[in-house]
């Protein structure tokens, strides 16, 4: 599976990409059993990359449906344990496919897996919590109606910037939403409203916009990695800024380019060193 090949490699690359990441509450993720990560979504696909590389357990992710249109993309994304969720803007004819995705999520919960859902639904490089969609609540509702012991974990991610290299990130895993504080899942509208109220409250409490000012000496691994790989990083950043101007995809495209460019850079350095007899 592509997921198992890329995950350790990308985890390593993130050490060059992130100056510092502060992780709190990771002990709230159970070692086994069904978990739904109800996450904020300010940084496009990079949010999913970050979470998949942070947790030891396998993570299935819900992603915007339009990126699954081409067969090659669909196969690649599926091998990364990603599933499509279609929005109304993509056309009403696709909304029925969401039922298949949600059924797949319930099956994964029955198998004790982790599913990541971005509860805001939209990504705008936002710096405050957007109104939550109903999808997270509906998944929890169905799982609990089926008698599953699902843990819904609020996840808050904040970034010190969205448009430049070298991130400082705060990542907070909240305590599971207490099922006992919610109305009976059979009370559809009442349940969903209360669910989103509790989830919004927990996410807002976890959002941390305090970022330290760090000198290069305080981030030695990042600084050394940046210096040693500057040609590849600089090229990835330059291309990404050109491709993603006016969009929310800078970090997602940059890390994607680094996945390709860093190994090529290593090969070039190796052959140059061998050519000049330095090895």
Walk me through the structure.
This protein is globular. The protein has a seven-stranded mixed β-sheet, with helices on both faces. Helix content is about 45%, strand content about 15%. It is built from nine helices and seven strands, in the order αββαβαβαβαββαααα. With about 280 residues, the chain is α/β, with parallel strands linked by helices. Helix 1 (about 1-15) packs across helix 2 (about 45-55) and helix 8 runs antiparallel to helix 9 (about 250-275). The longest helix has 26 residues, at about 250-275.
Give the arrangement of secondary structure elements.
Layout: H1 2-17, E1 18-24, E2 35-39, H2 44-54, E3 59-64, H3 71-79, E4 82-85, H4 97-110, E5 114-118, H5 135-145, E6 151-159, E7 167-173, H6 188-206, H7 220-228, H8 230-243, H9 250-275
Parallel strand pairs: 1-7, 2-5, 2-6, 3-4, 3-5
Antiparallel strand pairs: 6-7
Helix pairs in contact: 1-2, 5-6, 8-9
What's the short story on this structure?
With 279 residues, the chain is of the alpha/beta class. It contains nine helices and seven strands; from the N terminus they run H-E-E-H-E-H-E-H-E-H-E-E-H-H-H-H. The two termini are 35 Å apart.
């Amino acid at each position: 599976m592509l997921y198992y090949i890329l995950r350790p490699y990308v985890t390593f690359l993130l050490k060059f990409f992130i100056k510092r990441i502060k992780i709190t509450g990771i002990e709230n993720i159970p070692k086994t059993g069904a978990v739904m990560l109800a996450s904020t979504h300010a940084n496009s696909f990079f949010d999913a990359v970050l979470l998949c590389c942070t947790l030891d357990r396998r993570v299935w992710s819900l992603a915007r449906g339009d990126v699954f249109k081409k067969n090659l993309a669909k196969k690649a994304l599926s091998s990364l344990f990603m599933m499509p969720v279609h929005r109304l803007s993509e056309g009403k004819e696709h909304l029925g496919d969401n039922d298949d995705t949600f059924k797949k999520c319930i099956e994964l919960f029955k198998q004790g897996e982790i599913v990541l859902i971005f509860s805001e639904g939209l990504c705008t490089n936002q710096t405050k919590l957007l109104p939550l969609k109903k999808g997270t609540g509906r998944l929890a509702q169905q799982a609990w109606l089926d008698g599953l012991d699902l843990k819904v974990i609020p996840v808050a991610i904040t970034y010190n910037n969205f448009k430049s290299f070298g991130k400082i990130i705060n990542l907070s895993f909240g305590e599971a939403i207490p099922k006992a504080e919610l109305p009976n899942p059979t009370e559809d509208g009442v349940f969903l409203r209360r669910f989103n109220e509790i989830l919004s409250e927990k996410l807002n409490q976890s959002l941390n916009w305090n970022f330290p000012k760090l000198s290069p000496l305080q981030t030695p691994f990042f600084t050394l990695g940046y210096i040693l790989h500057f040609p590849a990083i600089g090229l990835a950043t330059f291309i990404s800024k050109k491709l993603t101007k006016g969009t929310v995809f800078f970090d997602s495209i940059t890390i994607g380019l680094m996945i390709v460019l860093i190994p090529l850079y290593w090969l070039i350095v190796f052959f140059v060193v061998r050519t000049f007899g330095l090895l």
